[in-house]
User: Which sequence fits this backbone?
């Protein structure tokens, strides 16, 4: 955060990448103070994994609060053209000032920020049309800032994923754990899986039954049924719920249980 503060004076635009499944928990609240006064662009990434109806509600929510927003799927490049338009819209005042001063073709300098594992580097690579930033489906891959020039109009500074010191309420930490934004060693797999089964039965009833034959089971009984269906067994044929939990978490994060949005507008602050 100190390094970002030192560089903010060089920046025209701040592009914040969030996970569309957790549009609230994946936003670092300390960034608002850090980038106050700068033009902002909010990228809803991983929209291939999130609920389309909820995407629309969240995009409207943030647009109504004055943020330029764009949905993005960095895996296949969906949304790249919209990002170019959004950069122009977010930097309209800056571009107009340059024009009046006779400054031509000075690139917009943008800082790409976000928490770990929201896909910042994947977004940059997709936007650039080639691999120019390190990317992986786990937190902590980008270790330091790196500049990426995209033609004559835009320069991007990729920054490491930054968490804040203390979460407001347990739900924030839980939602981050569900999507893999925090280290999997922090929360026991079985505990996380039980929270996922509770969420699925409440938000998307029927999907657990379709995938695992859980019917209306909840809690540990549901996790046992998942483990048995997946063939996660101990000696004697007893359900190995620890292995089953790991497999369930993987299915949840990968989209094998369908498109899921964990947070809903109006329910999480």
Assistant:
């Amino acid at each position: 955060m100190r390094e970002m503060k030192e560089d903010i004076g060089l920046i025209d635009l701040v592009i914040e990448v969030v996970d569309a499944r957790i549009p609230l928990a994946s936003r670092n609240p300390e960034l608002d103070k850090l980038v106050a006064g700068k033009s902002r662009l909010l990228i809803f990434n991983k929209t291939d994994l999130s609920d389309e109806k909820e995407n629309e509600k969240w995009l409207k929510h943030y647009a109504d609060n004055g943020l330029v927003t764009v949905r993005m799927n960095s895996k296949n490049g969906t949304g790249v053209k919209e990002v170019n338009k959004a950069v122009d819209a977010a930097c309209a005042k800056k571009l107009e000032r340059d024009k009046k001063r006779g400054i031509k073709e000075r690139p917009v300098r943008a800082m790409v920020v976000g928490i770990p594992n929201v896909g910042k580097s994947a977004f940059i690579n997709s936007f650039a049309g080639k691999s120019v930033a390190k990317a992986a489906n786990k937190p902590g891959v980008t270790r330091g800032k790196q500049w990426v020039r995209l033609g004559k109009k835009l320069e991007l500074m990729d920054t490491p994923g930054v968490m804040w010191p203390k979460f407001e309420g347990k739900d924030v930490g839980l939602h981050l754990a569900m999507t893999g934004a925090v280290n999997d060693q922090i929360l026991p797999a079985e505990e996380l899986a039980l929270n996922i089964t509770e969420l699925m039965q409440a938000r998307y009833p029927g999907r657990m039954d379709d995938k695992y034959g859980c019917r209306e089971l909840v809690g540990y009984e549901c996790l046992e049924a998942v483990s048995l269906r997946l063939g996660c067994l101990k000696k004697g044929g007893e359900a190995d719920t620890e292995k089953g939990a790991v497999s369930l978490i993987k299915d949840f994060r990968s989209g094998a249980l369908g498109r899921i949005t964990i947070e809903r507008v109006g329910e999480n602050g």
Q: What stands out?
A: The chain has eleven helices and six strands. Strands lie at 13-19, 39-45, 68-71, 108-113, 146-150, 154-158.
